[in-house]
Amino acid sequence: MSFNNLDQLYRQVIMDHYKNPRNKGSLEGEHLAVDMNNPTCGDRIQLQLKVQDGIVEDAKFDGEGCSISLSSASMMTQAIKGKKVEDAVEMSKVFSDIMQGKEIDKDMDELGDIQALQGVAKFPARIKCATLPWKAMEQGVEEKE
């Protein structure tokens, strides 16, 4: 697949998550809640996590922002559900490395839709948009511990 076709596919994946967000809404019952914003662009996210016995059993989000931040939240909540907390945090670190343009030793296919955001690394002003939900998740599970 050529670079242009791959770039177009990634844009479609991002826009699909933006227009049809997965896990948008609120959790019932006891859960962690983290509100975070990016004052430079106005992105705002409220992340809710249900963590039981070290496993992220459920994750929901709500918020306002650009297609990058809301798509990232949709992708992240999908990716961390059912994962051990330490695996979710490790995934966040890998995502942060990708956003910083670092080489990673992980098969990109393992990241699923998240790999569509790797092009954001070329636009430093948008990196905070993409990492906002991940930082909220890290903060939430850190507070839980």
Describe this structure in words.
The chain contains four helices and three strands, in the order αβββααα. By secondary structure, it is α+β, with helices and mostly antiparallel strands. The chain has one domain (3-144): Alpha-Beta Complex (Sufe protein. Chain: A), CATH 3.90.1010.10. The radius of gyration is 14 Å and the shape is globular. Helix 1 packs across helix 2, helix 2 (67-80) runs parallel beside helix 4 and helix 3 (85-99) runs antiparallel to helix 4. The mean pLDDT is 92. It has helices spanning 3-19, 67-80, 85-99, 124-144, and strands at residues 32-38, 43-52, 55-64. A three-stranded antiparallel sheet has the order 1-2-3, with helices on one face.
In whole angstroms, how far apart are the ends?
44 Å
The structural domain count equals: 1
Low-pLDDT runs: none
Radius of gyration: 14 Å
Shape: globular
**What is the spatial order of strands in the main beta sheet?**
1-2-3
Computed structural class: alpha+beta
What proportion strand? 15-25%
CATH topology, by name, is Sufe protein. Chain: A
For the secondary structure, the number of strands is: 3
Number of helices: 4
Order of helices and strands: HEEEHHH
Main sheet attributes: strand count, strand direction, barrel closure: 3 strands, antiparallel
- Into which percent range does the helicity of residues fall? 40-55%
CATH architecture: Alpha-Beta Complex
The CATH first-level class comes to: Alpha Beta
Characteristics of this structure?
single chain, 145 residues, alpha+beta, Sufe protein. Chain: A, three-stranded antiparallel β-sheet, globular
